[in-house]
Each structure stands twice: as C-alpha cells, then as structure tokens.
Amino acid sequence: DNTQRKKLWKENREDMLSDAGIALFFFGNKIVDGNVVESDGLIQEFELAISQNIKVIPIGCTGFTSKTLWDKVIKSTENYYTDNSELIQTITLLGDSNIKDTDLIDNIIKAINLLQKNI
Fold first, then answer.
1. Where are the alpha helices (DSSP H) in the chain?
2. C-alpha angle with apex 39: 61 to 14, nearest 5 degrees?
3. How far apart are alpha carbons 59 and 89 in whole angstroms?
4. What is the pTM of this model?
C-alpha cells in the first residue's frame, strides 16, 4: 500500500533524525519511469531536519537533490547558520563540482567541527 509505505518512510526518517545534531545530504536521485529524477525523500529529510532544528550540510558537489538543497542554503545562509564567515565559506566550497576528494572530506569535517561549536 503506497500510503502506508510513505507513512512508514516518514516515521523512519523522523526516527533516524531524532538523535542527530547535524545532517549531511549527498546525491539524492532515483529512477522513475526510466528517468533519473530528484529524490523527494531527500527533500523530506531536509525539511524534517530543519523542523527539528538540526544543522544541515548539503554536499552540493554530489549533484541532484543535494545540489538543489545546497543552492537553497547558499542563497540564504542566515536561515541555516549563525553569522560565521568561516563556516559559510566552507559550506560554499562543498558545492564545487571540481573539488578534489581529499579537499571535500577535509571541508565536510571542518564544517561539522564549526557547527559543533554552535550547537
């Protein structure tokens, strides 16, 4: 039953986020009717995280829904983060599709560390 399945998935997302202080968002795509589309589930997780006051880090360089979420966050960083230029600069770097893997990992860790200081 599609309605029951959606309810269960929402409950699973809520449970997964219930103990989180920070949530990272990668990729976010799925196949629908043979086409690659953005994941509505990742959007729901993002919205749930925001509603639960969880700090979000969309990894825009991985594309798809994460890029859409990263664009949203970058356009209005004041809605998601404190006024911390180092944090915002670090989050901005996570949208660079040319970033090297080691730099990506370093910047994710840096963003987490900066956010932990403000939780």
1. 2-17, 40-51, 64-75, 85-93, 101-116
2. 105
3. 13
4. 0.91
Q: How many CB atoms lie within 10 A of CB 74?
A: 16
Per-residue DSSP letter, 118:
T
* C-alpha span between 60 and 73 (Å, rounded): 10
Nearest by Cα to 62 from 39, 35, 85: 39
> At residue 99, what is the residue type?
I
> What are the beta bridge partners of residue 72?
none
The SS3 of residue 42 is helix
Residue 70 near residue 59, CB atoms below 8 Å: yes
- d(CA 56, CA 91) in angstroms, rounded, equals 10
Chain segment 73-97, per-residue pLDDT in tens: 999 999 999 889 999 999 999 999 9
